Amino acid sequence: MHTEQIDFWTGTFGKEYTDRNTRDQQEWDSFFINYFGCTKIDINNRCFGHLPKDAKILEVGTNTGMQLAGLQRMGFSNLYGIELQWYAVEKAKEYTKGINIIQASGFDIPFKDSYFDLVITNGVLIHIAPKDLPAIMGEIVRCSKQYIAGFEYYAEQQTDINYRGNAGFLWKMDYEAKYRELFPTLKQAYKQIYPYLTEQEQGNKDCMYLLEK
C-alpha cells in the first residue's frame, strides 16, 4: 500500500524528525515527566505492566527505538519493531541491543496471524490519514494474539492539525474508540487520558489504551 504520508515520512522531513526526536533514556524520562508528570515507563506499567516479561511484543513505528529500549528496562525481553524509514532503522539498531528491528510498513506487517501477545503504537496512528486507518488497524489486529495498545494524540472528535506548516499529516482523535468501531469484538481493557502539563501544549491530551481480543 502506497500513501502520501509514506512519501512524506520516508523523505527529508522524516529524517529531520528522527534527528530531532532522538533522546537517550534519561532525556526520554525527563521529557515525559515535563509533559505528563511521570515517565513513559510509569504510563506503560499502568496499562500493561501485568503482562509476563517473556510476552512477545511488536512495536509498529519504532523510529529510533526509544520506546523499545524502555520496554527492555521494564524487563520485557521478547521485543520486535518495524519502522518504515530506513534511516530510523539504522539509528534504532545503534540505539538498541537484543531487539529485532526491521524495515517494514504497518500496512503490510511481515509476521503471521496472532504472532504477538501485544502489538503497540506510540504516536504513529496520528500520522495515518483517517481513510487509511482501517487498513493499518486491521494489520495490527491480525498480528495480535491477545492485546493491542497505543499511546496517541487524543480528541473526542477527529481533528486535522497543521504540523510544522504541513496539512494532512497529523490528526488527533479517539483511536481506542476507532479500533472498537472497526472491530466490535475488541474489548477495552484499559484507557487513561494524559493532559499535557506544559504551557505551550495547554489543552492538548494523549491517551494510553489497551484492547483485548
Can you put this structure into words, describing what you see?
It is globular, with a radius of gyration of 16 Å. Helix 6 links the parallel strand 2 (78-83) and strand 3 (100-103). With 213 residues, the protein is an alpha/beta fold. It has one domain (4-212): Vaccinia Virus protein VP39 (Rossmann fold), CATH 3.40.50.150. The chain has helices spanning 4-10, 12-20, 25-36, 40-48, 66-73, 86-95, 133-143, 175-182, and strands spanning 56-60, 78-83, 100-103, 116-122, 144-154, 159-160, 171-172, 187-195, 205-212. The mean pLDDT is 94. Helix content is 35%, strand content 25%. It has a seven-stranded mixed sheet, sandwiched between helices.
Which strand order spans the largest sheet, edge to edge or round the barrel?
Answer: 3-2-1-4-5-9-8
Mean pLDDT: 94
For the terminal residues, how far apart are their CA atoms?
25 Å
SSE order, one letter for each helix or strand: HHHHEHEHEEHEEEHEE
Bulk shape:
globular
- Structurally, the number of domains stands at 1
User: Could you give me the name of the CATH homologous superfamily?
Assistant: Vaccinia Virus protein VP39
**Named CATH topology:** Rossmann fold
**How much strand?**
25-35%
Helix-and-strand structural type: alpha/beta
Helix content: 25-40%
Oligomer: single chain
The major beta sheet can be summarized as:
7 strands, mixed
Enumerate the spans where pLDDT stays under 50 for 5 or more consecutive residues: none
CATH hierarchy: architecture = 3-Layer(aba) Sandwich
